[in-house]
Amino acid sequence: MNSRSFIILLALLSVSLGIKLSAMPAHTVTTSTTSHLVSLDMVNHQEEVHNADNVNNDIDSYIRNQIPELQTSTIISSKVDNTNNGNNYAYQYQLGNSKYTISVWDQPTDRVRQIQGITKSTTSTNSLGQTVETVSNTRLST
């Protein structure tokens, strides 16, 4: 494969993975017979995205194992707040007419992971036909 074909293949791969190519410093990678220009920043970004997906899947699995009621639910959103000591995750699930927001504390260095709290919000209709939202909170740890 010549370097032009390699660059085109790299560009197509980045589009399929949703990675935005920008003016990143290029480095020469030499194989036994051919040199190719490759952005090391792009390779690192791909690894970060892959690692983030693994962590998200891991947190989701943890939540679903801890709260079996959510096994058949759908994830609506997730976010993470990074701290010096670990990560705070907030996952939101939809199950029927109820939404659950689950807070998880994760400290990989100390191998600590725990659910901090659960908020359940249920939407229903009262006898007057008005939409009513009932919210309940459970704080599992401080």
Summarize it:
With 142 residues, the protein is an alpha+beta fold. The protein is 30% helix and 42% strand. The longest helix has 27 residues, at 40-66.
Q: Give the uncertain stretches in residue-range form.
A: 21-50
Q: Please estimate the helix content.
A: 25-40%
**What percent of residues are in strands?**
35-45%
Radius of gyration: 22 Å
Q: Number of DSSP strands? A: 7
Structural category: alpha+beta
**Strand line-up in the sheet with most strands:** 3-4-5-6-7
Total helical elements: 2
Count of separate structural domains: 2
Shape: elongated
Describe the largest sheet: 5 strands, antiparallel
Q: What is the typical, i.e. mean, pLDDT?
A: 74
Question: N- to C-terminal separation?
Answer: 58 Å
The secondary-structure element order is: HEEHEEEEE
Assembly level: single chain
